[in-house]
Amino acid sequence: MKTATKWLPKWLPNKGNKTMAKADLTTDTQIKKAIKDTIKTAKTANHPIAGYKGLELRIRPHKDSQDATADFRHRYTHPITGKRPYMTLGQYPALSLADARQYHSDNMQLLAKCIDPIEHRADAKQKEITDRQNTLQHFINEWRDIQDSKNLSTGTINKNKELLKPIESQLGHMRVTDITPSIVIKFINGIQKKHTYKGLRVRTLLKSILQIAKAHMVIEYNPASELQGTLKNHKVKHRPALSNDVTAFAKLLNDIDQLDDTRQLYNKSILQLLSLTFVRIGDACAMQWADIDLNAKQWHLEPQKSKGRGDMVDSIVIPLAPQAMAILERMQPLTGEQKHVFHNSRRKKAPYHHMQEVNKVLNSELMNDGKGYKHIHSPHGFRASAKTMLMERLGYDELITELALGHAMLNKYGKAYNRMTAIEDRTRMMTKWANYLDDIKAGKFDNVIHADFKSKKEKQA
């Protein structure tokens, strides 16, 4: 007659159950010994932690390895459903015995308030994720992604990096919902103590970043907006230009023409082109053969600084006067096989002449009887000189000179509205301008020409 097998609960030790319940643990020494013993038996074991009901250490040996994983777990009764879930607290020894006891106590306090610890932890984790996504750094990263898609110039990218540094270091960790106008004002004022203009540019950049958060409806208003009267104004300091003294400007042109063709060919040619085309120096140095139509005598230019700016056109056709064409014809045998007109193989990322070299020559003792033109005239100054003299000396109006400079024509609301190019009028104007420069270099200062833009109908009326 067979003896009946007595039924035992699964949690009690028996030979058929791989999970072994062991004696209560009270010290780290006992934990380390329990881990070694469990590895020898190669069976998972649960060890209660003395004095903390429901808190245990589960030890699971690794197969084919003299090692094991030890997890602190808390089994409790759900305050509403009555179920008995396990909550893993962390691995030993990364989570110490003292920390496990503290977690148990925290859970018991939550349970006393009818709060489930697992649900509470999930909610806290979700809040942490949401808070992280709502930090300014999150929107800085999004703003940076937008800028990366715009194909910005290297100079603009470097300037943005410089302006982002204080924003990231001082405000990046903050939630955008915690950033107030007073915080922005204090932040910008701190920068303006040393750099007034930089502070204003940082504020503009911060406003753009926060505008993304507003677009995502994370904030209702942009705290970097409407700060008039709270920040220091920057007095615009125009770059030096010889725009009113025609005699001094003529001397400058002659100084450029007398530069050595052997040592200063690039600098000489670039400065001559600046005087004839009055483009920005960065655009002149980066001039590409592919953008020049030698037959039409035109330069199809996409100004480097126009990207993302509403006050400038994205592209412009610059008519090339015969004097400008002569410079290109001089350069063609030297760099015609290269991408850039002023090719420089020593610069890998930007293989063309560096604009600082042009500045150095203009300010050097080679110019202006050994005194140079520092604080007198800059490469950018050719734009101011051309606009002033075209209007005051040659009689051209505001519209055509602004078009020649690549400025977008704005209405009273600041939006571009006039898309005319006036290419025929500008072609004639550029030739007259080049001839005017030749005349003043030769000492002819009385050749004032007044352009007449009246239509034939107006003349006949």
Relevant terms:
Integrase_DNA_bind_dom, 461 residues, alpha+beta, 3 domains, Tyr recombinase domain-containing protein, 16 helices, Double Stranded RNA Binding Domain, disordered N terminus, Integrase-like_cat_sf
Lay out the secondary structure.
Blueprint (H helix, E strand, L loop, with lengths): L19 E2 L6 H14 L3 E4 L6 E7 L6 E8 L10 E7 L4 H16 L4 H17 L2 H13 L5 H18 L9 H12 L3 H20 L30 H12 L7 H13 L3 H5 L6 E2 L4 E4 L14 E4 L2 H14 L19 H9 L17 H12 L5 H7 L4 E2 L5 E3 L4 H19 L14 H5 L1
Parallel strand pairs: 1-2
Antiparallel strand pairs: 2-3, 3-4, 4-5, 6-7, 7-8, 9-10
Helix pairs in contact: 4-5, 4-7, 5-7, 6-7
Question: C-alpha Rg, in Å?
Answer: 38 Å
Distance between the termini: 135 Å
- Helix percent reads 40-55%
CATH architecture group name of the largest domain: Orthogonal Bundle
Whole-number average pLDDT? 86
In the CATH hierarchy, what is the superfamily of the largest domain?
Intergrase catalytic core
The CATH class of the largest domain turns out to be: Mainly Alpha
What does this structure look like?
The structure is a single chain. With 461 residues, the protein is α+β, with helices and mostly antiparallel strands. Helix content is 45%, strand content 9%. The protein contains 16 helices and ten strands. The strands form three sheets. Strands 1-2-3-4-5 form a five-stranded mixed β-sheet, with helices on one face.
